[in-house]
Amino acid sequence: LRRNPGEPEFHQAVREVLHSLEPVLRKCPQYADANLVERLVEPERQVIFRVPWTDDAGEVHVNRGYRVQFSSALGPYKGGLRFVPQLSLGTVKFLAFEQIFKNALTGLGIGAGKGGADFDPKGRSDAEVMRFCQSFMTELHRHLGEHTDVPAGDINVGAREIGYLFGQYKRLANRYEAGVLTGKGIGWGGSHARTEATGYGTVHFVQEMLGTRGEELDGLRVVLSGSGNVSLFAVEKAQALGAQVVACSDSSGYVVDEAGLDLDLLKEIKLERRGRLDTYAEARAGARFSSRGSVYDVPCDVALPCATQNELREEHALGLVKNGVKVVAEGANMPCTPDAVAVLREAGVRYGPGKAANAGGVATSALEMRQNAARESWTFSEAEARLAVVMRGIHADCVTAAEEFGTPDDYVLGANAAGFLRVAEAMRDQGVV
Ligand code: NDP
């Protein structure tokens, strides 16, 4: 705490992991040697830089860029870039720390990093976003490389931004290094199913969680937060598996549509028009929009928080439990507060933490790197089939580790322990570095 003042989210993420690793370190004391845990919680490198850019009116703005390269024990640093106005170093560090365990769980040979900027793309023209991305990459490029650090998208960094970032990297590096960024366009090195992967993967993970008790998603009521990249494709997969998806949200409020969300309309509003959810309710008979209360007030069997960190709080968890929720799985990173998690677990709700449940995105990014290295392009169904295999594997590893360390059904312990053991083994083999 003294070493990292003013970084509450980073403290929260580290505390959760270290707490759940206690039985692991008791049973495997070799991993407590050589200050391995102390090394694990200290980023290998963090870069903070100035991002100056000019808006369409000629006014100069200055933002702050970040890249935290947390762990390269298992491969090149890997993790997304996020553009949100309130981004701080502590947020980037928590995300990069979570990424260590998530990326280890995929078993695909990727280290952990995260980055972004305190830039708000809302209301900015394409030309402004392009100039911002070019300036951001002008500094960041010297720290990247297909064998060094491979960013992807995250909140507010989608295909458009990845395109601008890649274009500038290519110009500065003077080479077409496809593997330096993931989430690229399909026509120029991107992988099929990368856009869908996090949302689809979360739903695959939920299917596995339900499957342990012989249940399935077909016919269950699902509620999600957010209506961005992760949420929309979670809706798509959940609907394909027969779920009744009745509500989602954005930063302005939430919509309830008892007839089941109209995904085409949602995609048109959120992806094409970059609009707000109230327009969904205006366009769709029977749907209602609310800017008061929470999407978690809507009764459901499965809740998928897919928006942002610490958005599902204790009061929301109490409401979900009261309304009979069975499964909560995190499409977003750390969307449930510790108090909320405690409520869910005490009530016997099955809870899938983000580092396991949303690992499908980074897994497909690693598969994109694999295709780039081999100069191959798999079909959508091949990429999706591999994603499903990875998610089944992660679920099985979580279950096995939770049983091994004494708390079956505890996905938090399972995810942290299984991820930690892979990283710790590599760190021991590689010596004190
Ligand atoms: P997007 O920017 O595409 O979407 C985020 C969505 O969340 C938007 O609809 C946004 O609303 C909404 N939102 C933001 N804050 C709130 C809030 N307080 N309450 C309700 N809704 C809110 O981001 P992604 O979908 O890519 O990422 C979402 C989460 O998933 C993040 O935690 C991210 O780290 C995590 N994640 C993403 C991966 C990926 O592949 N993209 C991979 C693994 C994890 P609005 O539309 O109004 O802006």
UniProtKB/TrEMBL annotation:
<comment type="similarity">
    <text>Belongs to the Glu/Leu/Phe/Val dehydrogenases family.</text>
</comment>
<comment type="subunit">
    <text>Homohexamer.</text>
</comment>
<feature type="binding site">
    <location>
        <position position="102"/>
    </location>
    <ligand>
        <name>substrate</name>
    </ligand>
</feature>
<feature type="domain" description="Glutamate/phenylalanine/leucine/valine/L-tryptophan dehydrogenase C-terminal">
    <location>
        <begin position="191"/>
        <end position="431"/>
    </location>
</feature>
<dbReference type="Pfam" id="PF00208">
    <property type="entry name" value="ELFV_dehydrog"/>
</dbReference>
<feature type="binding site">
    <location>
        <position position="198"/>
    </location>
    <ligand>
        <name>NAD(+)</name>
    </ligand>
</feature>
<dbReference type="Pfam" id="PF02812">
    <property type="entry name" value="ELFV_dehydrog_N"/>
</dbReference>
<feature type="site" description="Important for catalysis">
    <location>
        <position position="154"/>
    </location>
</feature>
<dbReference type="GO" id="GO:0006537">
    <property type="term" value="P:glutamate biosynthetic process"/>
</dbReference>
<dbReference type="InterPro" id="IPR006097">
    <property type="entry name" value="Glu/Leu/Phe/Val/Trp_DH_dimer"/>
</dbReference>
<dbReference type="InterPro" id="IPR006095">
    <property type="entry name" value="Glu/Leu/Phe/Val/Trp_DH"/>
</dbReference>
<feature type="binding site">
    <location>
        <position position="99"/>
    </location>
    <ligand>
        <name>substrate</name>
    </ligand>
</feature>
<dbReference type="GO" id="GO:0005829">
    <property type="term" value="C:cytosol"/>
</dbReference>
<dbReference type="InterPro" id="IPR036291">
    <property type="entry name" value="NAD(P)-bd_dom_sf"/>
</dbReference>
<feature type="binding site">
    <location>
        <position position="78"/>
    </location>
    <ligand>
        <name>substrate</name>
    </ligand>
</feature>
<feature type="active site" description="Proton donor">
    <location>
        <position position="114"/>
    </location>
</feature>
<feature type="binding site">
    <location>
        <position position="229"/>
    </location>
    <ligand>
        <name>NAD(+)</name>
    </ligand>
</feature>
<dbReference type="InterPro" id="IPR006096">
    <property type="entry name" value="Glu/Leu/Phe/Val/Trp_DH_C"/>
</dbReference>
<dbReference type="InterPro" id="IPR046346">
    <property type="entry name" value="Aminoacid_DH-like_N_sf"/>
</dbReference>
<keyword id="KW-0560">Oxidoreductase</keyword>
<dbReference type="InterPro" id="IPR033922">
    <property type="entry name" value="NAD_bind_Glu_DH"/>
</dbReference>
<keyword id="KW-0520">NAD</keyword>
<dbReference type="InterPro" id="IPR014362">
    <property type="entry name" value="Glu_DH"/>
</dbReference>
<dbReference type="GO" id="GO:0000166">
    <property type="term" value="F:nucleotide binding"/>
</dbReference>
<feature type="binding site">
    <location>
        <position position="365"/>
    </location>
    <ligand>
        <name>substrate</name>
    </ligand>
</feature>
<keyword id="KW-0547">Nucleotide-binding</keyword>
<feature type="binding site">
    <location>
        <position position="153"/>
    </location>
    <ligand>
        <name>substrate</name>
    </ligand>
</feature>
<protein>
    <recommendedName>
        <fullName>Glutamate dehydrogenase</fullName>
    </recommendedName>
</protein>
<dbReference type="InterPro" id="IPR050724">
    <property type="entry name" value="Glu_Leu_Phe_Val_DH"/>
</dbReference>
<dbReference type="GO" id="GO:0004354">
    <property type="term" value="F:glutamate dehydrogenase (NADP+) activity"/>
</dbReference>
